[in-house]
């Protein structure tokens, strides 16, 4: 086999591989002798078919199989012998005529086109100087949370039958919804609890229940929003024939041991401790995110001159751009992007793609130098955690990952990245800086990466401000694991994000499918 480098431009390499006809014939002869004992043909004793007859009958087919074996073997040998690390799957272009190779005994020639990883020296983590923002959990923060819990857990008691409802009360009602005088499916509810002032129901529904008393029968006239999740109701006028069964007023809920007991804790001190621990965890996560952002920014700046594999950048950009277009179609672009031309948007998001790829290469190089890897135990734990998100479908989720290498890589990538980040932080010069909670959770004013959309519940934002993961180190599997069944768009006034869901769905609810 003869290999010649035809071109080397930047990170792109092209090799011509020529496999002499004599080598092909030698491999063909060896293959025939290998399979000859198993060949069964009419007129010949088992295993006694002459090699010449097998060559005549099946030579072209066997040679085709040999060529299929040669291409990946030669490609890998070419890369290994030159110690090249491909940045993406090498491309192969066959130059020989199949007829000449299979029947006329000609040399087999093909080209390997590959984009290689850039050679560079990654920054020494010890040279990085980082600041870790730290915010203590304030007593006021805990007290505010206690007040919210007390408000949310307060009880309600019936008012006198003659007492009218007011904002803040809960009205217990039965209703039947009609459009053009016809009852529509899902438009009825019994013992529905409507918290006046919560805004959980479609506009106008709660307002028309202010001032009612137990025993009243009222007609509530509303118009479903044009963007309502249930298309057959969107923009329609409806009448809900409503019977008021009770009006309940909120009762004062004290912040004491009884509040903690209602929440399953022993006493108020235990509740305060639980809240403090939860806030500390939130602070730690926010602190790490800020610290990681600084780390990525410094690495990005220190390696701005790295040659980037064009294909890797293009793949990353295409992934981001699909999400940008989806956000644009849904009317969810960031305000700063709404007035930009397509060319301006593409330039912005291509820069983000380049940053991600650059940082991915740097983190991978640092991890390689430190012999960092993801263990099978860590991967198994990640798969189990993913399966737990889908109660009742755990087995299907596990099987999905067992049969999908791309999905496993999607789980491996963030684990690997976090391990490399931990390694860098451990070696870097990190100084703790005390800040308040507002500063800790404030978004950075300037960021080299940004989000294309305000909302993206099912997908990761195209380029989160603190996210600079490489194309090969992102959580973005080609296929999604089995998902829970999505709830159908609710057909009644109760909102999907209401604090307390009713026992039964009702058709005037805000669309459950609406993104939050």
What does this structure look like?
By secondary structure, the protein is an alpha+beta fold. It has twelve helices and eleven strands. Helix content is about 40%, strand content about 15%. Strands 6, 7, 8, 9 and 10 form a five-stranded antiparallel sheet that branches. It has a four-stranded antiparallel sheet with strand order 1-2-4-3. Helix 1 crosses helix 2 (about 50-80), helix 4 (about 140-150) crosses helix 6 (about 270-300) and helix 9 runs antiparallel to helix 10 (about 395-400). It is elongated and about 105 Å long.
Secondary structure layout plus pairing:
Blueprint: E1 2-9, E2 12-19, H1 21-35, H2 51-81, E3 91-94, H3 98-102, E4 108-115, E5 129-134, H4 139-152, E6 156-158, E7 170-179, E8 182-195, E9 217-223, E10 237-250, H5 257-262, H6 268-302, H7 310-329, H8 342-369, H9 376-387, H10 394-402, H11 405-427, E11 429-434, H12 437-441
Parallel strand pairs: 5-11
Antiparallel strand pairs: 1-2, 2-4, 3-4, 6-10, 7-8, 7-10, 9-10
